[in-house]
Design goal:
The longest helix is centred in the middle third of the chain and has 20 residues. The protein has a 6-stranded mixed sheet with strand order 12-18-17-16-13-15. A 5-stranded parallel sheet has the order 3-5-6-8-11. It is of the alpha/beta class. α5 links the parallel β5 and β6. α5 packs parallel to α6, α11 crosses α16 and α14 runs parallel beside α15. The protein has 22 helices and 28 strands. The mean pLDDT is about 95. The two termini are about 55 Å apart. The structure holds beta-D-glucopyranose. Beta-D-glucopyranose (BGC) binds next to β6. The site of beta-D-glucopyranose (BGC) has 7 residues, from β6.
């Protein structure tokens, strides 16, 4: 399609018609000019395409492979694996004639309570952004678009359609937007989906700062922004702010209002032209790369789903090497989730799974096990008969694998949790099992962290997350050692809910939530507060051990060339396994409030026993920068930085220093600056000392009992405008104003 030509032939009404959906999942065609309609469908961990009559919401969706959910996939720390997943999803969309897949979701996990955390990747923006970028690359290589969602700051489900998130500019830039920014810049998603919520009082769907200034002007992105389903408050305001597509169709009045707004001059036609042009480009991109002949093999996808799930699970604990289970041990599986695994979350991402593999079924091909359900999942009620049966099975076994976790109704899109507990009936069961059997490995199926009152009483814990339709098989692969676990946590597991960074401000007060913890999200908070946690960000064990050596750096922070960082890793154990190496940057003596350390890069290695490999990453100047409000830009403070090679955020193996040269940021001096601010500036010191000399001997409030130190301290924090009042007429405001001028000229 010649987009410009088609656009020039369109009436205002036709252009406007492109800016709202047709029904729930389609764009509007313009048949007169040969512009077809394209279809969008939900993801992110599978294709949720509606059938047979797709223009209304509902649960009648095609059978599709349910891959592991985002919470687990992020623990792979593996953008290439994400690209493989994306490629399969892209093929599936092609086979089903879906042009845009609604995912991935790159919102930051602000609180473990958020009901949708299973769909989100991480508490860390670098990890989240990189993982999202891999996924996007994979889907789009197949000629299918994604919709990176929910832009931005959709960090809770409570009142998600009306809540206003009050967030500092710095926290937005460093945490909440950074996750999207990385993905947008690295992999250029065809579309973004704006969030329901307001940010600092403005709905995302009508926020020109968010949709135009940041996204288009600053990040240089030029795709289509669609609304989350029902997120539009005012269609005209939305289009004016940079929203191209309202989804789903709200009604003819929205078109009419937009036409009227153009005709009355409320909004320039050029704005509608630009939005329509972007829509035409999207449609053209999709249609010109259509590949309806693509064939997919659900059987093969199931195998890949199992492989992905193995990479997504995290071995949290393994005292005495209880796992892997070897030899002819008498093994018991206990817990309903062994038979009926929970492998995905509720809401718009729910997949009509083509297959389901439970661990109980998968273990059949490995060894005989005994089984007892122990609890029910419909209700959190203790069933003593089930418990007694399970205790008997546990007693007769040499090792028990206890399958625990969160039932469907504990976490879902649409609401948040209010606590971090697993059902009381499961905790009760585990207590009873522990009374008769010390060798218990717990397998957890949940979309987000839970408190673990049992952590010190069980020797082994495998976090399986919501691992997709083949997850049950992956659990068996890992606990019997066919493959070594390799996932590492993409989020901190706190000891208890009240430890979490936003505990006092989640989910807020009515429609008002203050992000008072600011940039201190996840491990940034726990590290700064020196708090113990249940399991730290980046933690994960395997069946071997790794040694780190030879951390080396080259390049410098400011030459324009990135800093290259390498470290050698040796598999010092007896089995083949993968290690995820994390690189954190720690400013040594920052002038600004900064997190202790921040993840800036990572790498993953497969190593045979005895083998050594090297991980190399690069760090550009952004890796050292913070968001400086005064500059409205990123800034690298000159000084020393420590680069850490780590096995987790609390297991730093090696570190090396690098210096950043450059100018410190100096805010302009005003009458409100303090005397101390002035003295701190080398370029202003002479002028300040001159002022001090003039004041020497001037009577100050308080008289003789004020010591020189007290006087100095008092002046240090005194704004310049106030000095005249304390020096008995020795200085006039005009003198100080002249001084301010001189200093700013010198700066
Ligand atoms: C969800 C989106 C989803 C859309 C369409 C919304 O309620 O927030 O993630 O893509 O519905 O189902």
């Amino acid at each position: 399609m010649n987009v410009k030509q088609v656009l020039s032939q369109m009436t205002l009404e036709e252009k406007v018609s492109l800016l709202q959906g047709r029904g729930w999942w389609h764009t509007v065609p313009v048949e007169r000019l040969g512009v077809p309609s394209i279809m969008v469908s939900d993801g992110p961990h599978g294709l949720r395409k509606q059938v047979p009559s797709p223009d209304h919401p509902g649960d009648d969706t095609i059978k599709a492979t349910c891959f592991p959910t985002a919470a687990g996939m992020a623990c792979s720390f593996d953008p290439e694996l994400m690209a493989e997943l994306g490629g399969i999803l892209g093929d599936t969309c092609q086979a089903e004639d879906v042009a845009v897949l609604l995912g991935p979701a790159a919102n930051i996990k602000r609180s473990p309570l958020c009901g949708r955390n299973f769909e989100y990747f991480s508490e860390d923006p670098v990890l989240s952004g990189e993982i999202a970028a891999g996924y996007i690359r994979g889907v789009q290589q197949k000629g299918v678009g994604v919709s990176l969602k929910h832009f931005a700051a959709n960090n809770q489900e409570t009142r998600r359609m009306s809540v206003s998130e009050h967030i500092s500019q710095r926290a937005l830039r460093e945490i909440y937007l950074a996750s999207f920014e990385r993905a947008v810049k690295a992999s250029n998603p065809w579309t973004l989906m704006c969030s329901y919520n307001k940010i600092n009082g403005t709905y995302s769907s009508e926020n020109p700062w968010l949709l135009t200034d940041v996204l288009r002007k600053q990040w240089g992105w030029d795709g289509v922004v669609m609304s989350d389903w029902g997120a539009v408050n005012d269609h005209v305001k939305g289009v004016a702010a940079g929203l191209e597509l309202e989804m789903p169709r709200a009604g003819d009045d929205d078109d009419e209002m937009l036409v009227e707004a153009v005709k009355s001059g409320k909004i320039p036609e050029a704005v509608v032209d630009q939005a329509a042009e972007r829509m035409l480009e999207l449609i053209d991109k999709a249609v010109s790369q259509r590949a309806p002949e693509t064939e997919i093999d659900l059987g093969q996808q199931h195998h890949i789903a199992r492989k992905l799930a193995r990479e997504a699970m995290v071995l949290l604990k393994n005292d005495g090497n209880l796992l892997p289970i070897r030899g002819n041990k008498k093994v018991a599986f206990i817990g309903k989730f062994a038979e009926k695994p929970r492998f995905q979350g509720g809401g718009s991402s729910h997949i009509n799974a083509a297959e389901e593999l439970s661990s109980l079924e998968a273990v059949r091909s490995v060894c005989p096990v005994t089984y007892a359900p122990g609890y029910g999942i419909e209700k959190d009620e203790i069933d003593e008969a089930l418990v007694a049966e399970a205790v008997k099975v546990a007693q007769e076994a040499e090792i028990v694998v206890a399958f625990l976790g969160l039932p469907d109704n504990f976490e879902s899109e649409g609401y948040d949790r209010t606590h971090l507990s697993i059902p009381a009936c499961q905790l009760h069961l585990l207590d009873k099992l522990l009374a008769v059997q010390p060798n218990i490995a717990v397998v957890l199926m949940n979309g987000a962290p839970v408190e673990m009152p049992f952590v010190n009483r069980v020797p082994a814990i495998l976090e399986a997350y919501l691992a997709g339709q083949a997850g049950g098989g992956a659990v068996v692969d890992l606990i019997f050692g066919a493959v070594s676990p390799c996932g590492k946590l993409a989020e901190t597991f706190p000891l208890k809910l009240s430890d979490t960074p936003c505990h006092l401000n989640f989910p807020g007060d009515g429609d008002h939530v203050v992000y008072a913890e600011d940039i201190y999200v996840g491990y940034r908070y726990y590290d700064k507060k020196e708090m113990p946690v249940l399991f730290p960000f980046g933690h994960g064990l395997t069946y071997t051990t790794f040694e780190y050596s030879n951390l080396r750096l080259s390049g410098s922070v400011f030459t324009g060339e990135p800093v290259t960082v390498s470290v050698d890793v040796t598999n010092t154990g007896k089995v083949v396994a993968k290690e995820i190496v994390q690189f954190y940057v720690r400013p040594d003596h920052p002038g600004k409030s900064r997190p202790i350390r921040e993840l800036k890069a990572f790498g993953k290695l497969l190593l045979q026993p005895g083998e050594t490999g090297t991980v190399t990453v690069t760090l550009d100047s952004r890796a050292f920068a913070y968001w400086e409000d005064g500059l409205e830009d990123w800034h690298v403070e000159p000084g020393k930085y420590v680069i850490e090679a780590a096995a987790s955020s609390r297991d730093i193996r090696l570190s090396a220093e690098i210096a950043a040269e450059g100018k410190p940021y100096c805010p302009p001096i005003t009458m409100d600056s303090t005397f101390g601010d002035v003295m701190a500036l080398p370029a202003a010191r002479a002028a300040a000392e001159n002022l001090a000399a003039q004041l020497r001997g001037a009577p100050v409030m308080g008289g003789d009992e004020i010591s020189a130190e007290m006087m100095e301290a008092m002046f240090r924090d005194m704004p310049l405008h106030a000095i005249c009042s304390f020096v008995n007429g020795k200085l006039k405001r005009a003198d100080i104003a002249a001084l301010v001028k001189t200093i700013n000229e010198a700066l």
